[in-house]
Write a structure and sequence with these properties.
alpha+beta; Rossmann fold; Dna Ligase, domain 1; D-amino Acid Aminotransferase, Chain A, domain 1; 6 domains; 5-stranded parallel β-sheet; 18 helices; 36 strands; binds adenosine-5'-diphosphate; binds magnesium ion
Length: 618
């Protein structure tokens, strides 16, 4: 059995692996980049080695430094997690050639499944149904166009080396084909260094169904049922669930057996996922589910499978890598209830999902669900790595129960000043069509208007903000004065500033209780800076959490209270903007220094102009 394990990864997956390793009594070694020294995964490992500067190519992708760290610390094995080097066959070979155990798929299987065209050819030979399309060597424009015409539109062009949702173009007509081909090739070269493409019939009403498989070195292969990952944005998974809604027992048996057959065809060992695309226009039918690709590693969404099977997949990986047989036989595995995972990202849905970076000054996760996260309050979301803050995983006896818990969990997320997609997740999980199980990969785009929270505060938020600024004691007039309930509720109008704008709010009885921290209100997964009218309130303007002080509206800078180099404290007024006779004070979102001044007093500014830049105290 492996007794020491180096984790060649970071963040939530590194922590996740460390957790299981510790439970199994295995010594853990973290490797980290120069900027990750303070991250929880580094602290939680028994030992840690700094392997290079922040850019992944100099640290988490540096095979040399990682293997050297393993040698130096006497690690027995390396777990690559997902992403980074996890599907790099040369790295897998180097690890084993160095006398270390690779807790991953055999290099040969990674290679067989690494390129999408080769993988599909292999699957065709093994009798696995694949999406109809063109996988040929002839990559000339003329040939590809001819093949696309023959397949019939819509067609999907895919980079053979593609991954992570990149290098894909849907083409709806022959006329569009040349331009789409050119742009797909450009993206493929830039991202993967390989411009070759394949063509696939674009499946309508597509659902992403994938099957978790596991093999051992004794020739056993089992599946751990399916997951539905149809809720995607730009071909990237956002919400995953297990089992798949609408999957009947015989369809499940067929697709899961196909997955086992696919894994056997490449002598698979360890954890892997067979991804299928389903034409769900008439529900899930076995003859309309095709092999898409195999991911030869642990998958981001593996926790939903763990939740419904009660198994620890990282433990299985370690057992298999140690040469042990799979802990359970197929007939010992069963599905218990329903599970959902929502990926909480540092991004702002209201600005087209722009990534949001910065310090997590306030971070609170909901209770009662599994939260896999790589960060804690005070950590930084940097632009160097994946912007995922956490995965929220909820389990329930039924799909409705799992969805209700997931939605509640997303709504309960509190993050500031980094922006997140929490409210977007909550809205998605609450959406009637999602609850009805009518999902496909176009769901998010189709319902975007319902799912993206409005840029203006909702009435619920205004009520909560107004309530929160009521004078204390006596705080909440509705609960302290019991006489109020006898007749029609009285009204009380007060002014409040929310998200940088002033509002008059007629307080109503029975509003939401406000969860607030230092001038920020958290409700329904949203986060709003608020305060009494015209007062400075903590927090920058929406969408800017990185110390950029931004004009929330077009207007004139009528006062600048600070200059370059000044020290400021959180909440300190920095500038006043006037527009349409309304004044707005902008305050410091955190303690720090004015590192740059970008405007002069009396300047006219447009909405979104950066007035000055603050640098926070480290
Ligand atoms: P899964 O297929 O397991 O659901 P994803 O496809 O979302 O997961 O991505 C798997 C891993 O690869 C994640 O860690 C993600 O951060 C990483 N990843 C995805 N795209 C890229 C990319 N373009 N560059 C680097 N890492 C990526
Ligand atoms: P990646 O390696 O980037 O994960 P995939 O081949 O797994 O690429 O495809 C990613 C996503 O693109 C799928 O989950 C699905 O939503 C969509 N997709 C892929 N192939 C098709 C297809 N033939 N028809 C419709 N949608 C597809
Ligand atoms: Mg995929």
């Amino acid at each position: 059995m492996i007794d020491s394990l180096l984790i060649a990864n970071r963040g939530e997956i590194a922590r996740r692996i460390i957790r299981t390793a510790k439970r199994l009594g295995i010594r853990t070694i973290a490797v980290h980049s120069e900027i990750d020294g303070d991250m929880p995964f580094v602290r939680e490992a028994d030992e840690a080695v700094c392997i290079g500067p922040a850019p992944a190519k100099d640290s988490y992708l540096s095979a040399d430094s990682i293997i050297e760290a393993a040698m130096r610390t006497g690690a027995k094995a390396i777990h690559p997690g997902y992403g980074f080097l996890s599907e790099n066959a040369e790295f897998a070979e180097r690890v084993t050639a160095s006398g270390l155990i690779w807790v991953g798929a055999p290099a040969a299987s990674i290679r067989a499944m690494g390129l999408k065209d080769a993988a599909k050819k292999r699957m065709i030979a093994a009798g696995v149904p694949v999406t109809p399309g063109y996988l040929g060597e002839d990559q000339s424009d003329e040939r590809l166009q001819r093949e696309a015409d023959a397949i019939g539109y819509p067609v999907l062009i895919k980079a053979v080396a593609g991954g992570g949702g990149k290098g894909m173009r849907r083409v709806d007509s022959a006329a569009e084909f040349p331009a789409s081909l050119a742009s797909c090739r450009r993206e493929a070269v830039a991202a993967f260094g390989d411009e070759r493409v394949l063509l696939e019939k674009y499946i309508l009403s597509p659902r992403h169904i994938e099957v978790q498989v596991f093999g051992d070195t004794h020739g056993n292969v089992v599946h751990l049922f399916e997951r539905d990952c149809s809720l995607q944005r730009r071909h990237q998974k956002v919400i995953e669930e297990a089992p798949a809604p609408g999957m009947d027992a015989s369809t499940r048996e067929a697709v899961c057996q196909t997955a086992v057959q696919a894994a056997r065809a490449v002598d698979y060992v360890g954890a892997g996922t067979i991804e299928f695309i389903a034409d769900a226009s008439e529900g899930l039918r076995a003859d309309r589910i095709w092999f898409m690709e195999m991911n030869t590693r642990l998958q981001v969404e593996h926790p939903v499978t763990e939740a419904i099977t009660g198994q620890d997949l990282v433990e299985w990986q370690i057992l298999v890598a140690s040469g042990e047989p799979l802990p359970l036989r197929q007939e010992q595995l069963s599905i218990n209830g329903w599970a959902m995972e929502a990926r909480l990202y540092a991004e702002n849905p209201s600005t087209g999902f722009l990534p949001s970076t910065g310090r997590l000054s306030h971070l609170k996760f909901p209770e009662g669900v599994r939260v896999d996260s790589g960060v804690e309050e005070g950590n930084e979301i940097s632009a160097y790595y994946d912007p995922m803050i956490a995965k929220l995983i909820a389990h329930g006896a039924t799909r409705q129960e799992a969805a209700r818990r997931s939605a509640g969990a997303a709504a309960g997320v509190e993050v500031w000043p980094v922006r997140t997609n929490a409210a977007f997740l909550a809205r998605t999980l609450d959406h009637p069509d999602f609850r009805a199980g009518t999902v496909d990969t176009g769901f998010i785009e189709r319902h975007a208007a319902d799912l993206i929270p409005p840029a203006e505060p909702s009435e619920r938020v205004l009520q909560a903000a107004a309530r929160a600024i009521l004078p204390k004691p006596g705080g909440d007039i509705w609960t302290t004065g019991n006489g109020f309930r006898m007749n029609a509720p009285p009204s009380r109008e007060i002014g409040v500033e929310v998200g940088g704008a002033a509002y008059r709010v007629e307080l109503r009885y029975g509003g939401e209780p406000a969860v607030t921290d230092a001038g920020v209100l958290f409700l329904d997964g949203e986060a709003w800076p608020f305060g009494p009218p015209r007062a400075g309130y903590a927090g920058g303007s929406a969408g800017h959490s990185d110390g950029a002080i931004v004009a929330p509206m077009p207007g004139r800078v009528i006062a600048l209270m600070v200059a370059k180099g000044d020290r400021v404290t959180r909440g300190q007024p920095l500038a006043v903007i006037e527009a349409m006779k309304m004044e707005q004070t902008l305050s410091a979102p955190f303690d720090g220094v004015v590192s740059e001044m970008k405007v002069l007093a009396e300047a006219q500014v447009v909405e979104g102009s950066v007035l000055m830049q603050l640098e926070g105290d480290q």
